[in-house]
Structures are given as structure tokens and as C-alpha cells.
Amino acid sequence: MAIIKLRNPERIKDRLVNFAALKNTTLLVHLALFAVAALYGATFTIAKEIMPGWLQSETFVAMRIIITAVLFGILHLLYIRQFITDRRDLKLAFICALFGSLFNMLLFFKGLSYTHRINGAVLMMFTPIFTAILSGILLKENFGFIRVAGLAIATLGGIFFIGGYKLNFSKETVWGDILVTTNAILYAVYLVKVKPLMRKYNPLTVSAYTFAMAGIMVIPFSYRQTLATDFSSIPMPIWFGIAFVIVGTTFMTYLLNAWALKHASPSLVGSYIYLQPILATGIAVMAGKESLSLEKVIFALLIFMGVYFVNKSRKQYA
């Protein structure tokens, strides 16, 4: 019987181990991004109960940013203790704080107060497109036909899944629509700009610095509304909702997104925003507040197909 002798078994073993590790990391990235989409999907229903009845948008944003900054700061000091000393990196962290935390949240919630919720959800569908364009220009990320097709399919699926022909863009909503669209562009800038920091530093370090900076900058925008808020009148169920949005939709989502950006392209991270309306509808259906139609199932499949194409064509960054 012939005996097959491997020339370099140790090298082959190392390659198999590295391949398995890469597969595990890829799976964890998708699970993290799916969890982020699920948390955001639940937030649309919860935030509606909080604003503007109990909290003004500026106050709510300030609470989200400042408390999240404290949480990131504690974790960073306890487990990482890595510091950003390079002036260029500090400048980049400041830009990420402006675009990814401060203006992103302020413009989104303020925009929703001037437009229909369905308009805001549809306009956010264009974030992955802005992200892909900026990634191709600034990061030289692969921008081929498959990616363009995936983004187009997912965008169309997202638009029709959320509203389709029921959309209402008019003079009464134009100011809010502009604010939400600007928010989508700024968040796309954040996803691209934060990528170099994620390569160089721990995700907790980057998040701690960006939220600390945003926490200081948000005070002038919110102190008047915060001082005028009667916190003692807020019932316990609303406090639970506030806690969910702060810990779940802010702290956990930014932490998971930061970790995912360290191992995946900005376009892939941005593409998961298409899953938010699907998960939001699923949560509403389970709560008995909305019904599921065949049309929505078809549009949901289009969204999944588009995200698959974006993921298939993405360029990995080491």
C-alpha cells in the first residue's frame, strides 16, 4: 500500500488553523451586525413612546451620549488602558465624534420631528450607498458591478418594504427630510473615517475617545431642554425604555459596530442597515401591532439578496 507523505505538514496545519479562525471571525462579524440591526429595529417602537412626550430630542441625545461615554470610559480604564497620543489620530477621533455620535444623533431625531417616520426610515436606506461611494474613493475599496447591483437591489427592497407608494415627500416635510438625509451622509463619513483608527487601536479605545469628545460637545445643544425637563414625572416603564435605548441601542450597537469595523469593510457594516426595517416589522408583528403580507416577504427577500451580493463582493482589509 502506498504511503502519501506530506512535504510540510506543519505549514498545512497552520493554514487550516488560520482558515478556521477566519471563518469563525466572519461568522461573529455577521452575528454582531445582525444584533445591531435587531437593537435598532426595536428602538423605532420604543423611542416613539419616549419622544417628545417625556423627553425632548436634544435631552435624549445628551443622555445617550454622556451615559454611553461613561460606560465606555469605565470599560476602557478597567480592561484596555490604551491611549491615543498621536495628534493626527486625535484629530481623526474628533471628526468621528462629530459625525458618528453628535451630529448623527441630533440630526436624526430632530429630522424625525419635522417629517414622517416612514420618510426617515426610507432616507436612512441610502446610508450604505453613501458609505460604498466614500469607501471606494477614500479607502480604494472594491466597487465593482456586483456591489453596485447588491446596493441597488437592497435599496429598492428597503424602500418598498417600508412604504412603497405610500411615501409622502412634500413641502411640509422637506426640512426634516433634508436633516435625515444629512444624517445618513455624516454617518457614512463616520464609517469610512473610523476604519483607520480601528486598524490601529482597540475598538473600546476608539469608542471611549469619540464618545468622551461628543459628550462634552453635546452640552451646549441640550442644557436648556435638560434643565426644563421634569424627570420626576417620568413613569418607570418609560425609564426602562430609556435604559434600553441608552445601553442597548447606543452602547451595545456602537461597541459591536466598532468591533465589526475592525474585521470587515465599512460597506458591509453599512449594508446591514437594510435589515432594520425587516426586524422592526418582525418585532411589531410579534407584539400584535402590525400584520405581515406577502408583499413584505418578497421585499424582505430582495433586501437579503442585496446584502448577500454586497458581502460577496466586499474587499477584506487586514
Give a short overview:
The protein has 318 residues and is mainly alpha-helical.
Radius of gyration: 21 Å
Separation of termini? Answer: 44 Å
Q: What is the number of domains? A: 1
So how many helices?
13
In round numbers, the mean pLDDT is 78
Low-confidence stretches: 12-22
Shape: globular
Q: Could you give the count of β-strands?
A: 0
Alpha-beta content class: mainly alpha
The helix content is over 70%
Beta fraction of the residues?
under 5%
Taken in chain order, the helices and strands follow as HHHHHHHHHHHHH
Sheet with the most strands, sense and barrel status: none
Describe this structure in words.
It is built from 13 helices and no strands. The protein is mostly helical. The chain has one domain (40-313). α2 (57-80) runs antiparallel to α8.
Write the layout of secondary structure elements.
Elements: H1 9-50, H2 57-80, H3 87-112, H4 117-123, H5 127-138, H6 145-162, H7 174-200, H8 203-217, H9 219-227, H10 236-263, H11 266-271, H12 275-286, H13 294-313
Helix pairs in contact: 1-10, 1-12, 2-3, 2-8, 2-9, 2-10, 3-7, 3-8, 5-7, 6-13, 7-10, 8-10
Write out key terms for the chains shown.
318 residues; mainly alpha; 13 helices
